Structure formats: C-alpha cells, structure tokens
C-alpha cells in the first residue's frame, strides 16, 4: 500500500478522528516536517502514543523527493524537479526578488529578499493551450493536496517563500478539491501565508469561479484570457469552447461583486494573432466594467515546432498604451525570468534531457507589485 503524505489533510484527519486523537496535533506534525522534511515521523515531539502508530504505518513525512534543482545564471530563479511517489515528475519554480533594489515613490523599498513559488497542481494538463509547453504533454494525473504542499516544503529549503502562484503545470481549478485543501493549509499554521499573497490562475472554469470566493475568501484570482474574442480564444485555447466568453465575463462580474477583489488578467502576446491595436480596444471594452490588472506576457517560443511568434516590443507597448490611455486599465508587461532553465511561463514541461545546470534569467512581475 502506498503511504499517504502527512499533508493529505483529509486522510490524516480521518485517521486521527477514528483513533480519538485531537486534530489540534496536526499542525504540530506539519511544523516538524516543514522544518525537518527528511526526518522520521517518530521524531515529531509530544504526540499521543496512538498517533505515532498511525503515522508510522500509514503516512510519510514526504512522499515526493527532489530530483534536481537548477539555478539560472543570475541565481534569481531555481527550477525544482520533484519526483512523486508514482514516479511522475512535476516542476516548481522559485523566483527571488530583492525589494531593496526596486524604488517605490523614489525611495528604496522597505523589506528585503522575498520569494515567490510557482506551483504545479497536475502532472500535465488537459487544456492543451497551443502556446504552452505543458499543454503538449497531455494530462497524466491530479496532484493530491499533500503533493501540492510538499512542493512548498521542498522550496523552503531554497528560499523563504512569501508568495504562491498556481501557474505551474496544470489547470488548478480542474483539481479543485485538492487545491482548495492545500491553500487552506498554506494559510493556516505552521505556514501562515497571507491569502493576499496567493494567486490561483485559471483558463476560466466557470462553475469553479462561481464558488471560488466562498471557498477561498481573500485568495487572488487570475484569469488567462489571452483573447477578447471567442473565436481567437478557441483557436489558441481549445478548451475555451466549453467556457463561452459572455458566460465567463458574467461569472467574473459576479465574483467581483461578492469578493470586492481585483482580478488579474493574463494575456499572452502572440504576433499577428491577438496583438493588434483592434484587439487592445476589444479587450479594453470587454474589461471596462471590471476592476482588473492586465498582465501582458511576451510569448516564450517553445522550441522550433511552435507556429507562434513573439510580439515585437513596439506592439506590446502600443497594446499597453491603448489599455492604459483609452480605457484607464492598469496594465503591466511581464518580465521573463528563468528562460535558460525552461522555468518561464508556458515552459513548465518535464524535460529531463534538458541540461539542469543553467544559464541566465529574467522573470514574472512580482505579484506583490501587482497588489500595491
Ligand atoms: S497554459 Fe495552463 S491551462 Fe493551458 S495547457 Fe498550459 S498549463 Fe494547461
């Protein structure tokens, strides 16, 4: 029988419940594992005797192991390749920022180094977006809640993680229950991450967006829109056929009415496909009644087989100017980090043949900057 992760909260709660053990001991187990991921569960201090028996026979501190870690040349990005218990590999990317290097209101920013972890929720992905490396893998399996949290525990060995973005492999809302459970663990003891610093990115799974705020109040929602026209959307994101744009926009309106939170809109810039001035006006009109931050993402060519081309800098700038100038929409352009280690957006695909000792990086806009 495969052992469960101690972070598979449903299974652990169930076992403790049956044995009459207080659930208050669970964060104590997690705290020990977070600090000592390679330790034996017998070493968790001060648990009831019955808890040790359960932990020893049914659970493991960590069910996954770190297969490799590749630093980019500038050491700002580290790509972690993690082997799951079933042998599958997933990737998580640590991105570091030093706030002191940025200027805020003309002065160096307060704070210091902080990191964002880009986390995976599935092995592969069903959505098959045409511009995405992960989409080319097809879907293999959902990650359990424990396997999602274990990525965070591995990442803590490299950096003090303050922000989480569910923008790695997989469509998080297609693995809704595990993602919700994992986020509840992240925001509780011992991790205590602020909900404001966690962002879930989706292609727009409408029935999940409709319950997202009730299940995860305070968590940020990012929508990979990528086109303001249903036909273009379906061309580049075949799964969008199941989520017609008018229904998606209605669901975002309802989400914002309930949550009063701004929505992050991701828009990959594909030369000649969705980056023309008319597309910018169409997008501006579509988003005019929402409070959004648009993040324009210059396309990362995935090998020579990709039929898409990167938009020119001038096209990106013009697009941004239309959204800002005509529609007063806050619009940022994502910097790319980690391209040399295939750790940039749309590049998370397990490729063990790719050299893991790395070269130089650039990265995502810091999600904290977006929140200011
Ligand atoms: S962009 Fe996201 S949703 Fe689309 S195939 Fe890639 S991982 Fe899946």
TrEMBL record:
**Gene Ontology BP annotations:** rRNA base methylation; tRNA methylation
PROSITE patterns the UniProt entry points to: RADICAL_SAM
The keyword Oxidoreductase appears for this protein: no
State its location(s): Cytoplasm
Naming one, the record's GO cellular component terms include: cytoplasm
**What protein name applies here?**
Radical SAM core domain-containing protein
Q: Which cofactor does it need?
A: [4Fe-4S] cluster
Principal location listed in the UniProt entry: cytoplasm
Q: Does the keyword Cytoplasm apply?
A: yes
Q: Which residues form the Radical SAM core domain?
A: 111-340
* Pfam families per UniProt: Radical_SAM (PF04055)
UniProt KW keywords? 4Fe-4S, Cytoplasm, Iron, Iron-sulfur, Metal-binding, Methyltransferase, rRNA processing, S-adenosyl-L-methionine, Transferase
Provide any one GO MF term from the record. Answer: metal ion binding
């Amino acid at each position: 029988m495969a052992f469960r992760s101690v972070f598979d909260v449903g299974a652990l709660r169930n076992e403790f419940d049956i044995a009459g053990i207080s659930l208050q001991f669970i964060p104590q187990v997690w705290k020990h594992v977070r600090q000592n991921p390679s330790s034996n569960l017998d070493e968790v201090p001060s648990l009831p005797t019955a808890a040790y028996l359960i932990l020893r026979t049914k659970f493991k501190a960590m069910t996954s192991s770190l297969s490799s870690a590749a630093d980019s040349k500038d050491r700002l990005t580290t790509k972690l390749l993690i082997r799951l218990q079933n042998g599958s590999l997933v990737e998580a990317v640590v991105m570091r920022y030093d706030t002191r290097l940025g200027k805020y209101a003309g002065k160096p920013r307060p704070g210091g180094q902080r990191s964002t972890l880009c986390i995976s929720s599935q092995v592969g992905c069903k959505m098959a977006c045409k511009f995405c490396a992960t989409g080319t893998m097809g879907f293999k399996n959902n990650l359990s809640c424990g396997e999602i949290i274990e990525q965070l525990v591995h990442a803590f060995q490299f950096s003090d993680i303050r922000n989480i973005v569910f923008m790695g492999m997989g469509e998080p809302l297609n693995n809704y229950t595990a993602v919700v459970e994992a986020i509840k663990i992240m925001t509780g003891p011992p991790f205590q991450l602020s909900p404001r610093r966690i962002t879930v990115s989706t292609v727009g799974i409408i029935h999940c967006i409709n319950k997202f705020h009730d299940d995860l109040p305070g968590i940020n929602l990012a929508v990979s829109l990528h086109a303001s026209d249903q036909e273009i959307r379906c061309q580049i994101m075949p799964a969008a056929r199941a989520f017609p744009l008018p229904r998606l926009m209605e669901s975002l309106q309802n989400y914002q009415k309930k949550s009063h939170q701004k929505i992050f809109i991701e828009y990959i810039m594909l030369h000649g496909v969705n980056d023309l001035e008319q597309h910018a006006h169409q997008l501006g009109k579509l988003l005019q009644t929402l409070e959004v931050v648009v993040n324009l993402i210059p396309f990362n060519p995935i090998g020579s087989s990709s039929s898409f081309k990167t938009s020119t800098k001038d096209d990106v700038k013009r697009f941004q100017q239309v959204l800002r100038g005509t529609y007063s929409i806050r619009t940022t352009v994502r910097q790319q980090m980690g391209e040399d280690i295939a750790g940039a957006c749309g590049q998370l695909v397990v490729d063990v043949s790719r050299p893991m000792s790395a070269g130089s990086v650039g990265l995502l806009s810091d999600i904290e900057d977006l929140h200011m």
